[in-house]
Each structure stands twice: as structure tokens, then as C-alpha cells.
Amino acid sequence: MNRTLTITTLGLLVAMSSSLAAQELKVPASAALDKKGMLEISGSGFKANEPVLLLFTTADGVTSEIGYALKPEPVADAKGNWNTQWSYGRFVKKKLVAAGDFTLSATDDDFNELAATKIKFQK
């Protein structure tokens, strides 16, 4: 009985420590309000070989999934890392961004938020 308890406890500790690994979402310190704007976005600590959805909250408070404007589509590699470029010019053209801070979130396929950061747009 004692041996079973030890193995179960060890398995629980391993599961808990792997869930404590924080996902990180990285963007440059600022982005220009440019109708041809491109932004490098990367992440680490994500579930290996899993797709990552990126959600952007616009000036009017609407949250949009921006996968259509990402190249390549973000998928974590075997180590949980990924990177992509976002062509955000359409958001500038449509005045969905202005000077200031905006939220970018990374989620799984079920839209569970895994990480979030701010993007500072400036003229």
C-alpha cells in the first residue's frame, strides 16, 4: 500500500509541475500605426505540437481571432515554441486601433486563455 501511495503522489507532483509551466507571449515594445504594419509575435511554454489561436481586442472592445492575418499559422513545436508575423494594416485602415495599449491573447482551440500581453500602438 505504501509503495502505491508513493507512486501516485509522485505522478501527482509531476502533473502539477507540468501545469505550472507558464506560457509566454512576446511582442515588440511598440508597433507603428501603419497601414502596411507587420508585427513579430512569438510564444514559449505552450503544449507541444498544438495550434495556438491569437485574439486581439480592438478599440471598440470587440475581440477578434486574427488567424487569417498570420503567417505562418502558429503551432507550437516539440519544445512548445512558436512564432508568426501579423499583418495588422487592415486594423489600422478600419480605425480598429489607435495610439495606445491593446490586448493580445493566446488561447487553445477551446478559447481557453493561455497567455496575454499588451501591444502599444503609436504614431
What's this entry about, in short?
With 123 residues, the chain is α+β, with helices and mostly antiparallel strands.
Describe this structure in words.
With 123 residues, this protein is of the alpha+beta class. The chain has a single domain (25-121), classed as Immunoglobulins (Immunoglobulin-like). It contains 2 helices and 9 strands. The strands form 2 sheets. It has a 5-stranded mixed beta sheet, with no helix packed on it.
* CATH topology description: Immunoglobulin-like
| Span of the ends, CA to CA | 67 Å
Sequence of strands across the biggest β-sheet:
2-9-8-4-5
Number of domains: 1
What profile does the largest beta sheet have? 5 strands, mixed
The structural class is alpha+beta
CATH architecture: Sandwich
Tell me the CATH superfamily: Immunoglobulins
> Helical element count?
2
Mean pLDDT equals 87
Indicate the overall shape. Answer: globular
Q: Please state the CA-atom Rg, rounded to the nearest Å.
A: 18 Å
